[in-house]
From TrEMBL:
The lineage of its organism: Archaea, Methanobacteriati, Methanobacteriota, Stenosarchaea group, Halobacteria. It comes from the Archaea. It comes from Halobaculum gomorrense. This is Roadblock/LAMTOR2 domain-containing protein.
Length: 129
């Protein structure tokens, strides 16, 4: 299924996101500092979208967020939520990798559940991905 992740890890990430977000899930993309792979894309969406700009922005923002917010009174960084006219993009970061999930409308608590579930999955696979 993927070159960046063991197949079982890729399937688990997609399953975790789809279970948490349900039919609102639009896409799931795993990325490292140097590469990325789209693991899921809903059938009704454009199948040929260029992810490079999205992932490039997320990589750059990851470095700024982890450095810029380190040691603040806000506490530990959890995830980034971007709001668009037609949906949302949620970036959940691991140590040197992350997951970008796009979705249709959701409640804020749903984003918190998604971030917690994906973070736990990334931690579980930490030694293998």
């Amino acid at each position: 299924m993927t070159e960046l992740l063991p197949e079982e890890a890729a399937e688990r990430l997609v399953s975790t996101c789809r279970t948490t977000v349900g039919d609102n899930a639009r896409s799931v993309t795993f990325f490292s500092r140097t590469d990325h792979e789209q693991l899921y894309l809903r059938d009704d969406l454009e199948q040929d979208a260029d992810l490079m700009a999205f992932i490039g922005t997320e990589r750059q923002d990851f470095a700024m967020a982890s450095d810029g917010y380190s040691g603040t009174e806000l506490g530990e960084y959890r995830y980034t939520l971007r709001v668009f006219e037609n949906g949302y993009a949620v970036r959940i970061d691991g140590r040197d990798k992350g997951v970008l999930v796009t979705s249709d409308g959701m409640e804020l608590r749903d984003f918190n559940h998604l971030a917690s579930a994906v973070s736990a999955t990334l931690e579980e696979w930490e030694g293998e991905i």
